[in-house]
Design brief:
453 residues, alpha/beta, 7-stranded mixed beta sheet, 6-stranded mixed beta sheet, 20 strands, globular
Length: 453
C-alpha cells in the first residue's frame, strides 16, 4: 500500500440525506437534454435540425473554436428543440427519446490494438472526448496536446458524495478498460487516488497500469486539484488531464461494446428527498423521470434542486435535466425566510465551522441545511478563514485580489494554474464577506487563458 498523504485542512459539511446503497429501478426518461453551459468556454454550432432522427452517438453540435470536439446524443429519438437564454445563447438541446435504444456502431476494439491517434479519433467521433478535461483552466482537453500525466480520483469528499465503491460494482471491466485507454494518451503516469480509510473495491486497489495514491482527510481531499498539487504540481506551461470514475466507465464501455452508452449510477440525496437512493440513468435525463413522488412536500417549503453537490452544483427546475458531469442530484430547502437577529439566538439545529453555535459539541449530528446565506455582501477584508479549509500551498486572499484587479503577473506567481473553482468552493462556503469566490476564480482563469491564447 502506498504511503498515505494526510490532508489536515478542510471541512466536511454534515448534511442530512445520504443515499442508501440501494439501486432503485426507474423508468427511462421521455426527454433528455445536452446543455452547452455544462462545458465552460464552449460556443456550440448545431449539426442537426428540429425533427431529425437520432441514435445514441449521433453528433448534435461541435465546438466553434475546436471543430474536432463533437457532442452527441445520449439516446435514440428525435431532436425536439433548442432552448435559448439571454442573447439567444443555447442553453439546452432537447431530445425526445423513442425508447428503442438504437446506437451508432463505432465498432468494438481493444485499446491494446490501437495507437494513440486511433483512440483519440474514436473518442472524438463518438462524443466521449468531452469527458477528458485539463488543468490549468478546468476545461475540455485539447486533443492536439499531450499531457504530462493523467489523474483519476476514486473517491469523492463533497457533501453527500456518492460511494464510488458501490457505483463501480459490476462495471470493473469497463473501468479498467478506461484506465488502459488513459495510459495510451500520455507518456507520463496515470495517477489513481483512493481513500485510505474507506476504499475497499478491488477495481481501485488492484487497478493495473496506474500509480495508486492513498489520501486521508476532510473535503476537499477527494478533489483532483488537491491530489495534483500533492503528487505532480502544475507549473506554467504544464498540462495535466483528468477524468471521473464514471466517465472512464463510459469510455471503457465505448471500446468494449462499440457504442456510446452514457449511463451513470447517480445518487439522489439531500434532506428534501424522502428515500435517498441510487438510480441508473443516462446523462441528460429529466429529473422528474426518476425523482417524482420522492420529494418532501411541506407547506411553506420550496425545494432547491441541484444537479451536482451543494458547493459546486447547478440549480435546476423540477422539469430540468441531469448535468453532463454530475454524479448526484441534491435537494435541500430553499432559504427564503428572513431571520430577525437570528445569529444571536442559540440554536442546536444550525451548523457552523466556528463556535458561533453549539454544533461543535455534537460532531455526529447531521443538519437540514438550507440555502439561506444570512445577509448580503460585505467588505472584502483579511480574516484568515480561507486558509483553514484550503489544503493548497497558495495564498487565497491575495490570489483573489490579484484576479479582481486583473494583475496577470501576480496571478501566475500566486499559483492560479493549479486551482479551479471547485477547489475554492469551501472558501466561498465559509466566507464571512459573502463573496462569490468561485465566480471570481473562473474570471481569473478566463483572463489568463485569453491572455496566452
Amino acid at each position: 500500500m502506498p504511503k498515505t498523504i494526510k490532508i489536515r485542512k478542510g471541512l466536511n459539511i454534515p448534511l442530512q440525506g445520504n443515499a442508501e446503497k440501494i439501486l432503485q429501478p426507474s423508468p427511462a426518461a421521455q426527454v433528455y437534454a445536452v446543455k452547452p453551459p455544462d462545458f465552460h468556454g464552449l460556443t456550440p454550432k448545431m449539426l442537426v435540425k428540429e425533427g431529425d432522427a437520432l441514435k445514441a452517438g449521433t453528433p448534435l453540435f461541435f465546438d466553434k473554436y475546436n471543430e474536432k470536439v463533437l457532442f452527441t446524443s445520449p439516446v435514440s429519438g428525435t431532436f425536439q428543440e433548442i432552448v435559448r437564454g439571454e442573447k439567444r445563447r443555447i442553453m439546452e438541446v432537447l431530445i425526445k427519446a423513442d425508447g428503442k435504444d438504437e446506437a451508432v456502431d463505432f465498432g468494438a476494439a481493444s485499446p491494446a490494438g490501437l495507437d494513440r491517434d486511433e483512440i483519440i479519433q474514436r473518442l472524438l467521433k463518438s462524443g466521449a472526448w468531452p469527458f477528458i478535461r485539463q488543468r490549468p483552466y478546468a476545461v475540455i482537453a485539447n486533443p492536439s496536446d499531450k499531457p504530462k500525466s493523467i489523474f483519476i480520483s476514486a473517491f469523492s469528499t463533497v457533501p453527500l458524495a456518492p460511494d464510488l465503491d458501490f457505483v463501480v460494482k459490476g462495471q470493473e471491466n469497463f473501468f479498467q478498460a478506461g484506465l488502459d485507454i488513459m495510459k495510451k494518451l500520455t507518456d507520463g503516469e496515470v495517477h489513481l487516488s483512493v481513500d485510505a480509510l474507506n476504499t475497499r473495491s478491488e477495481a481501485f486497489l488492484q487497478a493495473k497500469g496506474v500509480k495508486i495514491h492513498s489520501f486521508e482527510g476532510p473535503h476537499p481531499a477527494g478533489n483532483v486539484g488537491v491530489q495534483i498539487h500533492h503528487i505532480d504540481p502544475i507549473n506554467k506551461g504544464d498540462l495535466v488531464w483528468y477524468a471521473d470514475v464514471q466517465d472512464l466507465i463510459i469510455i471503457g464501455r465505448l471500446f468494449e461494446k462499440g457504442v456510446f452508452d452514457p449511463t451513470r449510477v447517480i445518487a439522489l440525496n439531500g434532506p428534501e428527498v424522502l428515500n435517498p437512493r441510487y438510480y441508473k440513468v443516462k446523462i441528460g435525463a429529466q429529473f422528474l423521470s426518476f425523482a417524482e413522488n420522492n420529494l418532501r412536500r411541506e407547506k411553506g417549503t420550496i425545494p432547491r434542486i441541484i444537479s451536482g453537490d451543494v458547493l459546486t452544483g447547478t440549480a435546476i427546475e423540477e422539469k430540468g435535466f441531469l448535468g453532463f458531469y454530475d454524479n448526484q442530484i441534491t435537494v435541500i430547502p430553499e432559504g427564503n425566510h428572513p431571520e430577525f437577529m437570528g445569529w444571536l439566538i442559540p440554536n442546536i439545529n444550525r451548523f457552523s465551522m466556528s463556535r458561533t453555535w453549539p454544533s461543535f459539541l455534537m460532531p455526529w449530528k447531521k443538519y437540514r441545511l438550507d440555502t439561506n446565506i444570512r445577509s448580503g455582501e460585505r467588505p472584502f477584508v483579511m480574516t484568515g478563514v480561507y486558509e483553514k479549509v484550503l489544503p493548497l500551498d497558495v495564498m487565497p486572499m491575495q490570489l483573489l485580489k490579484a484576479i479582481m484587479i486583473n494583475d496577470i503577473e501576480k496571478m501566475e506567481k500566486l499559483g492560479i494554474y493549479e486551482v479551479a473553482p471547485e477547489d475554492f468552493a469551501l472558501c466561498e462556503y465559509v466566507c464571512p464577506s459573502k463573496i462569490e469566490i468561485q465566480t471570481i476564480l473562473r474570471e481569473g482563469l478566463d483572463s489568463i487563458r485569453s491572455e496566452f491564447a
